[in-house]
Amino acid sequence: MFLKRKEVVCRRKRGHMAELLNILVAVLVVSMISFVGALILFFNVKRIEKRLFPLVSFAAGAMIAVALLDLIPEAAEHAGDIPIFMYVLGGVIIFFIVEKLLYWYHCHDGMCEGHHHGAHPAGIKPFAYLNLVGDGIHNLLDGAIVAISFMVDTGLGIATTIAVIFHEIPQEIGDFSVLIYSGLTRAKALFYNFLSALMALVGALLAFSFTEMFEAAEPMMLAFAAGGFLYISLADLIPELHHDQQFPKSMLQLVWFGIGVLIIYVISVQFGVAHG
Fold first, then answer.
1. Long-range contacts at 246-255 (CB < 8 A, ≥ 24 apart)
2. pLDDT, tens digit, 9 for 90 and up, residues 48-76
């Protein structure tokens, strides 16, 4: 009898280890998607500068779409009686306060004037840090969603991983271009973007270890991340695009903005069930 119980325990442990291995492999694949930004490194600096505004437009559209079509609906679906939009508003307010503190920290000596490129001593715009925070939270949640899906069913886990990968490709391209535009070097932008992507691994391990607790907090975290994404896109990225008032470039920005929204919309429709 004792041997049978011991055998059952060993099988369960092997099952948990196989489950954890599947989760880790899937999440590491998702994290590596951040290197899609490396594609931009094939262009020289002048070409990158010419493409920054279209890519920032793309990022603005993608971020708004992710917040409104993905994060908020996902949060609302599992919210119950939780006031989701209070957490969205909380995300906007917290990101506003953090950005104000970052500007104060860099500009309290009077060297900064307005919201212009290279305005503060470090040459890096504060929304670079906000973008990393928002993306880190989003990646943490993606990792948790992948882990929970694998714990339910391996097939669902694979489908969810595919959905997250297709979801991450346009977003990571946009995030990388935002970091470059904010003043980071290409190497640092790629490095920080990859560190942010590794938050998916943290989220997966947390979800695997504390499943019930993480599931309870997921709607609030999704809503908070949505508020952060809305703040970055509406308060930082779109105002930057208004600096270029030439009609052809403005139309190009509008097109790229629409492409960002459309791609996220298509992914949400095609993979919405799996991602949920």
1. 249/53, 252/53, 252/54, 252/57, 253/53, 253/54, 253/57, 254/57, 255/57
2. 666 667 878 888 888 898 889 888 888 88
**CA–CA dist 269, 167 (Å, integer):** 11
Asked if 166 and 267 count as a contact pair (C-beta separation under 8 A), the reply is yes
pLDDT of residue 39: 61
Which pLDDT score, from 0 to 100, does residue 14 have? 59
Q: What is the distance between the alpha carbons of residues 171 and 31, in angstroms, rounded to a whole number?
A: 12
Helix ranges (DSSP H) in the chain: 2-32, 45-65, 72-77, 84-107, 127-152, 154-181, 186-197, 199-209, 211-231, 238-241, 247-275
Taking the C-alpha atoms of residue 228 and residue 90, their distance in angstroms, rounded to an integer, is 9
Amino acid sitting at position 153: D
Gap between the Cα atoms of 59 and 178, Å rounded: 7
Query: Whole-angstrom Cα distance, residue 145 to residue 258?
Result: 27
Alpha-carbon 52 to chain mean position: 19
Give the pair of three-digit tokens for residue 64. Answer: 């708004």
The residue ranges of the chain whose pLDDT is under 70 are 1-15, 34-52, 102-124, 152, 163, 166-167, 170, 214, 271-276
